[in-house]
Amino acid sequence: MVKIFLDSAKLNEIEKVKSWGLLDGVTTNPSLIKKASDEFGGNIEEYIKKILKVAKGKPVSLEVIGNTYKEMVAEGEELFKKFNRFGKNVYIKIPVNPSFDESSEGDFDGIKAIKTLSKKKIPVNCTLIFTPEQALLAAKAGAKFVSPFVGREDDFIRKKYGVSFSKDDYFPAEGQRKKGKVLEDEGIVSGVDLIKETRKVFDREKIKTKILAASIRNKEEFRECIIAGADIITAPFDIIESLVNHFKTAEGMKDFTKDIVPEYKKLVDG
Ligand code: E4P
């Protein structure tokens, strides 16, 4: 069954999702760590240990910050050595390409770092995936998870074609038309399409690496990523929290409660 990860470094959110019995894993990145900085104050090391203990046995992704092969391998080894013993659950997040220059000839330091860490049996979650080809390279290098960025792919397509939007707006999985043309990026028409095409490639190649749909912005996208074939969805706390709600569920509860007859209440109460 599809796994649900929490996309957050906030301990109270991790504990809450765990208390609902829904925590299959946690993903963090430097921006999510920054958002939790009020909570860990000065002691980030102790804070991360707590996260790992709460999530014990369930994968927790910690991201490297370097841009070179050497830095990323050293950081990945350090994070794994320092923290894995607390919950046996550290996954090292490595960008598929750490370069800031999108037009460069290709920086394979990310791919090389994935290969080295994987050979040392350090599990890797390859992040910042925007094409099925990037996912394929990461899988070939040995990544356990690949993280296509669904919401950011949608943002990029809209920005590229000058479509105005706000962050949580729904973007159609089948793509958006403008002047009769379907908007796309490298043949991908939406973030959900990125998951769907990656699934096709992985199934065709019998690749065991898990597809982890990341950068989820709303409930519809959460559902569509499952249908498109994601193995794992990582979602922010507010989205996971909203999954259980529906107006008609609450309305139905009010109706049923109003109709309880004393005989039935007595029977149920014992
Ligand atoms: C998780 O692994 C990603 O880093 C995260 O989902 C990115 O989400 P964002 O695009 O909302 O920042």
Written description of the protein model:
With 270 residues, the protein is an alpha/beta fold. 49% of the residues lie in helices and 15% in strands. Helix 8 crosses helix 9 and helix 9 packs parallel to helix 10. The protein is globular and about 75 Å long. Bound molecules: erythose-4-phosphate.
Keywords:
eight-stranded parallel barrel, two-stranded antiparallel sheet, TIM Barrel, binds erythose-4-phosphate, alpha/beta, globular, 270 residues
Question: From N to C, what is the helix and strand string?
Answer: EHEHHHEHEHEHEHEEHEHEHHH
The figure for the number of domains is: 1
Distance N terminus to C terminus? 37 Å
The CATH superfamily is identified as Aldolase class I
Gyration radius (Cα, Å) is 21 Å
Classify the fold: give the CATH topology. TIM Barrel
The proportion of residues forming helix, as a percent range, comes to 40-55%
Oligomer: single chain
Q: Which class best fits the helix and strand makeup? A: alpha/beta
At CATH's second level, what is the architecture? Alpha-Beta Barrel
CATH secondary-structure class: Alpha Beta
Largest sheet: 8 strands, parallel, barrel
**Strand adjacency order, main sheet:** 1-2-3-4-5-6-9-10
Cofactors and ligands present? erythose-4-phosphate
